[in-house]
Amino acid sequence: MPDSPVSFDELYAAHYGDLTVQLYAYFGDRQEAQDVVQEAFCRALARWRTVSRYDDPVAWIRRVAWNLAVSKWRRTRTALGFLRRQRVTEAQVAGPSPERVALVAALGTLPPAQRRAMVLRYLADLTVAEIAEREGVAEGTVKSWLHRARASLAAQLAPTETTHQEVRRA
After folding, report:
1. Is 28 exposed, middle or buried (0-12, 13-18, 19+ CB in 10 A)?
2. Is the pLDDT of residue 37 over 70?
3. In whole angstroms, what is the distance from residue 170 CA to residue 34 CA?
């Protein structure tokens, strides 16, 4: 090393690749190695006034990179140990029934005001008066929305005559 401190850019250009190869051999993962070496260089840059005066700034950066690599390895080992202690399988939850899928699809075809009225009435259990107050309309309007929405849903969700015949044959 020359007597004058080397610039950070020169040091980075000269040693980034070598340090990355060393950490790649340790990690076995190129991306992880690049991340760790990059972090070590970032820490060196933040302390460059001090680090640049060391006899071998690269040795300091290498030590920081290795320490970061070991820390990352330990965190990963701890996380994997935790995962191994967890239940192997999660309880299976049945998906929505075909009827529910059809209902949601049918609700999607309603005008927004009718859809809100249906959801508020039958899912939120609000009264007609509460819906009217919330929507800022007369109770008669809410009743009209609900009537039209129920009629539309009944038409969309009603079993067809073909379905009745198929059930009878079965």
Report:
1. exposed
2. yes
3. 65
